[in-house]
Specification:
The structure is a homotetramer of 337-residue chains. Chain A is α+β, with helices and mostly antiparallel strands and 337 residues long. In chain A, 42% of the residues lie in helices and 14% in strands. In chain A, a hairpin with a 3-residue loop joins strand 2 and strand 3. In chain A, helix 3 packs across helix 5, helix 5 runs parallel beside helix 11 and helix 10 crosses helix 11. The termini of chain A are far apart. Chains in contact: A-B, A-C, A-D, B-C, B-D, C-D. Chains A and B meet through strand 1, strand 3, helix 3, strand 5 and strand 8 of A and strand 1, strand 3, helix 3, strand 5 and strand 8 of B.
């Protein structure tokens, strides 16, 4: 069965900080061939099919230094959202609204169940510390490469120099300025040396190399499920991750947010631009307007906006908002406050 | 967009107790045409595709007197389960096991996440009291036809004579003998008359008929969201119901069980035979062996089986089991006990 | 065990349109006694305990004509939310923020997991058509009174005259004017007569009355799981419904919304005022400001607000918004547009 | 508010391989005091209260070398399960069954929803690689200590000598013999040295020690969300983990299974013995009989058992089972096969 031939994961060869355009160049010859075989599939189907997504099916999009995202299956399209909404709203809707407007209406009014009718399945390679954030999204199906049964690849994440951020002094959540000079060089050296040493000792304890070959016949080798604990959190893992469109939008709204850590945001950004947009263009547009680019006004914030629009000079003191809430509102409205 | 043409639900014309072979004959000409249009789709895809399921895609399978089940989309196949399992189990598995054996192994050992990698979407027409049981399965996506916005069809469930069961006297859960003679006739007459009257008054209160035409210009008409409360629980509703293969198996294991109410079991049986089997034949076979046809032995029950196999004459009194547990075990083993 | 004495549900005696203050008067003497016994419990516990919620524990709050809501157990308080947030945010937060401000911050920035640390369990009596909307919230635990095994009570919902709304002509979702005069009288008569007849025939088919007494020794009686299908959707059912605070807030935000059907909104309103407020007062206040009373601005809507604040005269034509979006924004800002 | 005083996690002082009886001795004076304060709580409540669980409320049970499990809140008891079941089963059940038998019946017949009516909240300290397995159980609420905002403690897991297992040669899943002599000593040295170095470099990169004090005023310090990636998977993290009783049983059935990795099984075993048993003794007993100690027979396996009981000499060849399935069945029945 042709499909099962693809169970070997494509492994990006080791390199750093490549551009997206070079993603395919990074694949080993063997993996590139497996993907090409899958892309040569030509099945006939009666199912809704999105040609723009078929274009990129199975193709890896490069993220960070060794990570990638690729779509390996999908179900449904914008039309499936519309179809489901019209079941709930009934016969009348067909005449009343254009599909595009209906999708905007649904997202604007939090009618989320029609978006659950589409499903998508990704194959993702990502550092373990990113995977630990990601997995907190519970409404998804996951099969992760198991370091209990298999040997992890010798690939770890090294931040690009421009992402080597200091701890923010003003904001416990964000990053501060970028480290430079000797301190930057020292951090990079520590990260690299410790990562390399961790892997060397990992294989030594296993008494196996990455290909599963025994290193020293006189030794037994530690169980894989134990040896893995010596690896650091910047090592790459990979998984299949499958979710419905509603939960994908929720994930993207949280993880493409400026408050999200850069390393997970990098994945979310690629998924929005390279996958969401070609797959469900109407939903993508509504998402950008009503979720990604939208803002929430509290009851108090809305009252302030109304007073400002009425020409009143409102200040924090008389606004009913706390200083922090006031600052956030003024930043949103791009006013000096 | 061709897909959206299908948002009109196919409505089976009113009839009773037809056989499955006649299902298509029951469709109105208009709906039959919509389905035929969809079935004429010939898209090219790189996705895993199951020809045996494509054969029946969009086709309604008749259930009860006016209900149906039809598959309207799907994602994945047996190969997707194998692929996901091999991610978790790692490179070694490829050589060690046949696909078929691997699927059996997964189901036997409750490794359920690989089955979550397949997804299926049904369009189902079912009586409201069946829908109320069905919806208790929470790990599914649902869009139901809304009687808040639309007018429900004039279709209600009437049990076939052979399913007009009395309350069981020995078992509060099961059904007893079938009602016959005058009592059966009286029950059928009550059910039919009350259902007809409920619908007549429903449209009268709405001041609209099923086509949305006003009945009496001098009246206003009650809101749909209120008028619906006059309908009885045997009226048919319909929904899109989407779930992954693991949760589908769980649903089927509970609802195709002899303890399930006949009216929901009728749906589960059709889904097993007409959908699960052609879609994922290896999973189907493993399901029949390891779930549907399997039995659980308690710690105490297992101890009894071992003693019996050792030739010991065990009786309830010395078995460590309660009388009820003993009876259930003897029934399972088909022994007199 | 005292607890199990309470498994008999308190049944409100039949009456209509009572006020909340009279709720206890509606209980039968037997049920009132069971509740009083539970309320006499005085256990000592080390767990977080909210005296204001203990005050109303087990007490039914009347909703609609025969429905009620009562809290039968709970876990956690505002402090549990704060405690969980401080695990995630770490040691620093303790000094930085007051509890109250932290809870507001969490809700404002969609940090929802700390709210999942509280749990509440309700006993609710509600019409079946309301239960069908309610159950769509999947992240809750439910045990419903089973009409498969037991006989439903003879209680059905009749709208109060002021809620007997016509279908809205402008808005497919909302209700229009209230029906009056002959049409109202006719609707009430139809609803009442059909409901009464449905129950009479239900017990006749069962050959049992509500107390489980056989009506006619010469007949067998239809199985309960079948006879129930003759009841209409305004009949009352009841269930235990348990959820965490995050999902409760989500439920309340959708069901206390003006777009929700009145009959479910009536429950949500009681739960906000009588339960949420005494249980978690800080969360309640933040919820009112940041969720219940908040508004979302789309990217385009936010741009319009900024232009208006800058003194520009914006009209729909040049706003980038559709006419519908424009109308919704002007309504939000209470401007003529 | 007394509760919030407890937001400081109790930190076990560094030590190795202590016995359970010594758990409290390991706490620092400050943390012991915080727990003692909470244990001094004496609130009056009307809620179901389990004295045997109150006995151990807030007390840490030691697991592995630095981990612990402690219950910090709970809701419900065996009586809540019975109460919920009797709602579903109706009035009749009250007379028919004892509580204990009803709970056994529910578990035997997979009636799981009544067990969802109880809830429990743990505070758990565990190695990151264990947390990564644990989090795959999605139906739980989690708040984890964030290494994005805070500095992780200097505590890592070192296997006890008797758990330093080799990779199994016969079974890819299980562990093999225990490493001994020089190889064991070398593994322990590598694990310890790498862990120590990782932490030293972690704080160097942060330019902060575990108390948050700056190490070198001339440097800036790497952001915490980045520096954490240098830590290895045996470092301890901690979280609040809250779930309902049904999902707790499911977790325990999978994680207390002999196939589970020892390091997570150690937690599951403690939770069964120290928490489940005192909290819900009837459910505990039914769980041991019907889940933990139970076995599943496939359709084919059941057929073999029946033939054996009838005195037939069955061998694998004519059994209808694969060699692997046959071996598993014979192992279950403790027969030579």
């Amino acid at each position: 069965m042709a499909l099962n031939e693809a169970t070997e994961f494509p492994t990006l060869v080791e390199t750093e900080h490549h551009t997206d355009a070079k993603a395919e160049n990074l694949l080993s010859a063997a993996n590139l061939e497996a993907i090409q075989d899958l892309r040569a599939n030509k099945f006939q189907t009666r199912r809704p099919t999105v040609q723009a997504l078929e274009e990129v099916l199975y193709k890896p999009f490069s993220v960070l230094d060794h990570g990638f995202v690729r779509v390996v299956d999908y179900m449904g399209d914008d039309g499936a959202v519309v179809q489901a909404a019209r079941v709930s709203y009934g016969k009348g809707t067909r005449k009343l609204r254009e599909d595009h407007g209906l999708i905007r209406y649904l997202l604007r009014h939090r009618h989320t169940t029609p978006f659950e009718m589409c499903e998508i399945k990704f194959h993702i390679k990502l550092p373990i510390f990113v995977a630990r954030q990601w997995i907190r999204h519970r409404t998804a199906n996951v099969n992760e490469y198991s370091a209990r049964y298999s040997i992890l690849d010798h690939e770890f994440y090294m931040p690009a120099p421009e992402h080597l951020a200091a701890q923010s002094t003003s904001n416990r959540q964000g990053r501060g300025d970028v480290l430079e000079g000797d301190e930057a060089a020292r951090v990079m050296a520590l990260l690299r040396d410790d990562s390399e040493r961790a892997y060397a000792h990992y294989t030594e304890m296993l008494n196996e190399n990455a290909e599963g070959e025994t290193l020293d016949e006189s030794r037994t080798g530690l169980a894989r499920e134990l040896a893995r604990m010596n690896l650091s959190l910047n090592y790459y893992t990979q998984w299949y991750w499958k979710t419905d469109l509603h939960n994908l939008l929720h994930f993207l709204s949280l993880r493409a947010d400026p408050h999200a850590q850069y390393e997970i945001r990098a994945y979310a950004d690629v998924m929005i631009d390279q996958v969401l947009k070609p797959w469900v263009p109407a939903t993508y547009q509504a998402f950008m307007d009503y979720v990604h680019g939208a803002a929430s006004l509290s009851a108090g914030g809305l009252a302030v906006v109304k007073r400002l629009l009425a020409g009143e000079a409102v200040e924090q003191a008389g606004s009913g908002l706390s200083p922090r809430e006031w600052r956030e509102l003024m930043a949103l409205l791009e006013r000096d406050g």
